[in-house]
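Troubleshooting: if your tokenizer reports a length mismatch, compare against these two reference records.
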Amino acid sequence: MDGNIFAILGKAARLLREDGQPDQAAEMTRQVFRSHSYESALSIISEYVETELSPHISKKESRGRTIEQKIPRHRHFSPRVSLAPPHPSPTGHWGNGAPGRLGRFVQSENNLSQEGNCWIFQSAIAAEDAVVAGDAKICDLAVIRGSALVSGNAVIRNRSLVEDRAIVMAGVVEEDSQIAGNARITENLLSQKAPIVAAACVYGEISGNIRLFPAAVVLPGQSVHNSTPDTIQLYHDHAEVVRPHDRSTPTLKPPENWNPHPKRENLHRGEER
């Protein structure tokens, strides 16, 4: 088993659930996410199941329970590599396809999490220590490599590349885009919108309703966060803001019975009394 900790955690949690121990799987996951190092996380997982990276033991004591189930060396976890066409259906939903075997599009079974509804569609590539997780989809000759993470509901397609330590948690990356370095692409929590990157490069951080057009570049250290419903459009040489129709400046008109001199009218009425 390769040593990607997220892949090991996902397989161990699934194994515990299959063994009728969902509470232990949840507890193990919480502890791993609180750990501060790879060694600590692996030690926690080894308290619940035996992995190829753990010392060889026949039984493990876990919170008062004996777990005899372990991850044997010959066990094959088939990642979900779709053999279906790598395009969404006309209704906009991704076809489920059929879970496939570990094939030439995935370097290691650790490249695809067994949790969530993530898919690596035919002709896409996941290699090295990169991970596809959550409900993410990669297709159409897209490549993720290095230590990149594609998760959430992100879609990577059309020959785009995600590499190095980049993290894409939402939005669409398409048309030969390059996401590299310590790039971060996320959904904005306030607007609940995510970026669309087309034929552009991102090395910094972007979130919210942002569109990158061909040749646009977000440099390392740059951050563009948009919490509004307006669309920030980034081009190679300038930026624009597109406001939705319902946010356009309204034309204010007084009501039909509006009196421009209410105080004078009240005084007049008082005199009549």
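Reference record two:
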Amino acid sequence: MQTQYSRYIWNKINNLKKPLILVCNDDGITAPGILNLIESVKDLADLVVVAPDSPQSGMGHAITIDSTLEVNKVQLDSSLAAIPAYSTSGTPADCVKLALHEILDMKPDLCISGINHGANSSINVIYSGTMSAAIEAGVEGIPAIGFSLLDFSWNANFSACHSVVRTLVSQALEKGIPEGTVLNVNIPKTDGAPVKGIKVCRQARANWKEKFDKRISPSGKEYYWLTGDFVLLDQGEDTDIAALEAGYVSVVPTQFDLTAYHSMTHVNSWDLKL
């Protein structure tokens, strides 16, 4: 399988400047998760941050086509003030598109998205704004990784994420990520304790059993809150859910080619004459 190699190895050999990493997320540019992601890799590469100006969780791969987009240069926390950062009014996928076509004057060596406040394991990956940014980068031919922590709290403890992020980013820069592949990384909640290790897994089969909480507004209009229960349909020990429940980081190589190759022979057996 062909592998994407960046300028990193060439630069390392020739003692040139650091690689360039594009940093995105879906929780917004002020979220603790993205600030911890930046802190984890700021000495490994030159960074440019492009992230939504407000939370965009659960946006999937939505893009903005029926309204305008705004981009504003912003300043991160004082310790990160030297890192170029931009907020946008768009979705996570919009952020990557704007970064590549309007903000940057060169192609990044890597795109990292996160650290998401909450899980993007199993079926959650298809709803994830965090992963949509990484997948959009992958579509554009840029190696990409999405990071998520299994803690929805705004004040989540990200200390266990630091070594995980550095290890995976360093390996991705040095060894590359297979073409057409994006890594979906989920980190268990450990309240600061070290994780047990990292496991490369497959995506667990699961779905959401949705419920709608129907309510009535003061004006008498009906409205709904979406709720639901996560239903695991897979008891395999090689899945991301199994790894996370055992205290390991899960790494799922994810592809954006949605062709079900195993079904092509069956569908081709249909009588398709018109």
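Descriptive notes for reference record two:
- The first strand starts at residue 3 and ends at 4.
- The chain has a mean pLDDT of 92.
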